[in-house]
């Protein structure tokens, strides 16, 4: 089954905790700290696989987790790093935040693997916290937490030209004639259920990639029929070929069909209406001379060339007029920017801070005049703050003030001379 959308949960690895231990050997009764650092957590990595063309695999497995880093060990042993997880996607895949719908990553241009979620850094062991005044620290830094996110994967075909038109106007027949694609062709509506890609080869390095975009009918931009599933595939195209049934075999009005589909394209993405559009009036082999003249003149009057349209009478069955159309489209593609249309990221995950870590301020139940401040946020702060330096101590005081810790101590009744304890740190409180 073709799948061009999938929702998955991804999580990087947690960093391993630093270790607290002390050297214990014969004849060395009071060895120094030798706790090793924790390993880094694994990354979540996206990579383009040119051999893939659907997101079907991600419909069956929806949760992907990188490995956690191992805790550091004694004797200065460093914990092992967590294993990365590599997610292979087809060219043109866009990664969006599932809650906001904003683009995080577009894999259109990416030739190299992209680190999507970075694993947590491993914590430092207690051996790294030795100072001249603290010879036996009993504290190690915890590993950074994992990052997790639910994302939507969307496949947007990378093609120079988009082929649009109502069902049964001859799009599949046209595509089969001009490219190496072999779409299913039948005489009933909605036979094309997947976007078909083909290469038009005109020789001497001329040609382009064309995509048949199925299911676009009135209301497609609002979810009617199949259109909303496939409209995304036209967003990267540079030129649009709009095929209509000039002979009105099924009683369709070609002029009305063009207006309806163009309105749906405009509703979906306003930028699409500014792209060059070529109208292929198909099935003219079924018209007599008078009918041919009438239909073509009506189309030219309604969609004049000075408004960006170009009319080509064609027959996808006999091949009439197709060569002239292809060379005209080839020139339009050459005049368009050479770069693939890429969607700019709307969210930068690297700029997002880790979730705010909790902490607790409480009065000791066992000792009078003693207050305890602890929790992951306090551990993390103590892990990267050098209290022996003036700059580090200033940062420490600012941290207590900005996080409301001093205010909470006063609310609990802490007064000058009382003791405040933070893990291995203990000091007298003075306002």
TrEMBL record:
Keywords: Cytoplasm, GTP-binding, Hydrolase, Magnesium, Metal-binding, Nucleotide-binding
Cofactor: Mg(2+)
Enzyme class: hydrolase
Binding site for Mg(2+): 172, 192
InterPro entries named among the record's database cross-references: G_OBG, GTP-bd, GTP-bd_Obg/CgtA, GTP-bd_prot_GTP1/OBG_C_sf, GTP1-OBG_CS, GTP1_OBG_dom, GTP1_OBG_dom_sf, OBG_GTPase
Obg domain: residues covered: 1-158
Subcellular location per the Swiss-Prot or TrEMBL entry: Cytoplasm
Protein's UniProt keywords contain Transcription: no
Keyword Isomerase annotated: no
Record-listed E.C. numbers: 3.6.5.-
Pfam families recorded: DUF1967 (PF09269), GTP1_OBG (PF01018), MMR_HSR1 (PF01926)
Binding site for GTP: 165-172, 190-194, 212-215, 282-285, 315-317
Boundaries of every OBG-type G domain copy: 159-334
Primary location group: cytoplasm
Gene3D superfamilies, alphabetized: GTP-binding protein OBG, C-terminal domain (3.30.300.350), GTP1/OBG domain (2.70.210.12), P-loop containing nucleotide triphosphate hydrolases (3.40.50.300)
Residue ranges constituting the OCT domain according to the UniProt record: 351-431
Role according to the record: An essential GTPase which binds GTP, GDP and possibly (p)ppGpp with moderate affinity, with high nucleotide exchange rates and a fairly low GTP hydrolysis rate. Plays a role in control of the cell cycle, stress response, ribosome biogenesis and in those bacteria that undergo differentiation, in morphogenesis control.
Subunit (UniProt): Monomer.
Similarity annotation: Belongs to the TRAFAC class OBG-HflX-like GTPase superfamily. OBG GTPase family.
Name of the protein this chain belongs to: GTPase Obg
């Amino acid at each position: 089954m073709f799948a061009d959308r999938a929702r998955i949960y991804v999580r990087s690895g947690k960093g391993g905790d630093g270790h607290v231990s002390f050297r214990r050997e014969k004849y060395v009764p009071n060895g120094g700290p030798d706790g090793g650092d924790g390993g880094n957590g694994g990354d979540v990595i996206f990579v383009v696989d040119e051999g893939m063309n659907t997101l079907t695999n991600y419909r069956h497995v929806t949760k992907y987790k990188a490995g956690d880093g191992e805790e550091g060990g004694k004797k200065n042993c460093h914990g092992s790093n967590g294993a990365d997880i590599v997610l292979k996607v087809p060219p043109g895949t866009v990664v969006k935040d599932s809650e906001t719908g904003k683009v995080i990553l577009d894999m259109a241009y990416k030739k190299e693997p992209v680190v999507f979620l970075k694993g947590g850094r491993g914590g430092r062991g207690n051996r790294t916290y030795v100072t001249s005044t603290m010879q036996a620290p009993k504290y190690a830094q915890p590993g950074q937490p994992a990052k997790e996110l639910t994302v939507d994967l969307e496949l947007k075909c990378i093609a120079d030209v988009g082929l649009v038109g109502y069902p049964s106007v001859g799009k599949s027949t046209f595509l089969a004639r001009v490219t190496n694609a072999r779409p299913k062709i039948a005489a009933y509506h909605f036979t094309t259920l997947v976007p078909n890609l083909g290469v038009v080869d005109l020789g001497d390095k001329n040609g382009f990639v064309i995509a048949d975009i199925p299911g676009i009918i009135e209301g497609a931009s609002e979810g009617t029929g199949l259109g909303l599933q496939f409209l995304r595939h036209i967003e990267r195209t540079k030129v649009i070929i709009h095929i209509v049934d000039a002979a009105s075999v099924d009683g369709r009005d070609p002029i009305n069909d063009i207006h309806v589909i163009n309105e749906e394209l405009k509703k979906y993405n306003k930028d699409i209406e500014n792209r060059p559009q070529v109208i292929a009036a198909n099935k003219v082999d079924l018209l007599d001379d008078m009918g041919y003249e009438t239909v073509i003149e009506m189309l030219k009057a309604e969609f004049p060339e000075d408004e960006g349209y170009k009319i080509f009478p064609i027959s996808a069955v006999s091949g009439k007029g197709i060569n002239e159309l292809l060379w005209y489209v080839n020139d339009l593609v050459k005049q368009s920017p050479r770069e693939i249309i890429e969607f700019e990221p709307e969210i930068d995950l690297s700029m997002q801070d880790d979730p705010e870590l909790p902490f607790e301020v409480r009065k000791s139940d066992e000792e009078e005049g003693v207050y305890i401040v602890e929790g992951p946020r306090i551990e993390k702060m103590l892990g990267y703050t050098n209290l022996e330096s003036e700059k580090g101590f200033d940062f420490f005081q600012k941290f207590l003030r900005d996080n409301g810790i001093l205010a909470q101590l006063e609310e609990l009744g802490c007064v000058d001379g009382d003791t405040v304890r933070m893990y291995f740190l203990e000091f007298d409180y003075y306002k």
